Amino acid sequence: MMEKERIVEIRNISKHYTLGGETVKALDDVSFSVNKGDFIAIIGPSGSGKSTLMNMIGCLDIPDSGEYFLEGKNVFSLKQKQLADVRNQKIGFIFQSFNLLSKQTAYENVELPLIYRGMNSSSRKEIVMNALEKVGLAERASHKPTELSGGQQQRVAIARALAGNPPILLADEPTGALDSKTGIEVMNLIKELNNLGHTIILITHDLDIANQAKRVIRIQDGKICEREEALVH
């Protein structure tokens, strides 16, 4: 059997914060890896360390100790400008609150990270429309967020994350701001994207959401305390 390509390798990451004069250990010697095509859910209650871990994976924060290899490169050894490039080119972010620009159209919101890359307009157009097509919103390209439902806004956010085909899609509570029916539709889209080959890391506190992933990593008090196969694929 051919060995899967490893995209992410987290090695012995620890992170401490000082709150009210006390030292809080947000992450405590955390290690795990992610292969190409994986769909992993990281689940834990509030204060478990999952948000801190998400910030590490997304290159939004650095640890006190440990290493993070993304496509073989130790990202924690990079300078701030290089980290910004990693965030723009290697990680597609999907946020609970969508984080769309209200005065920009769906097309313009999806286009934005490609502009930051310095891509020319003709190349951007093809990528943006392909991404919107993939989430079923090509016909809504000219609509602004206020003209879209919550589910459609999250689909635009997913299209933005897909633009440029980053190695990882990092989803933070992607159904948290949606009603249950729309949440199911968004999760079905995420599973469909994984079936198309996209590597997905999803952060959640919801066991029903986590169990839709192919693999579940539990975090508690800054430690990975359990790893198991998801119950539902």
UniProtKB/TrEMBL annotation:
GO terms for molecular function: ATP binding. InterPro entries: AAA+_ATPase, ABC_transporter-like_ATP-bd, ABC_transporter-like_CS, ABC_transpr_LolD-like, MacB-like_ATP-bd, P-loop_NTPase. The keyword Transport applies. Residues 8-232 form the ABC transporter domain. It comes from the Bacteria. Pfam families: ABC_tran. SMART domains: AAA. This is ABC transport system ATP-binding protein. It comes from Metabacillus niabensis. The lineage of its organism: Bacteria, Bacillati, Bacillota, Bacilli, Bacillales.
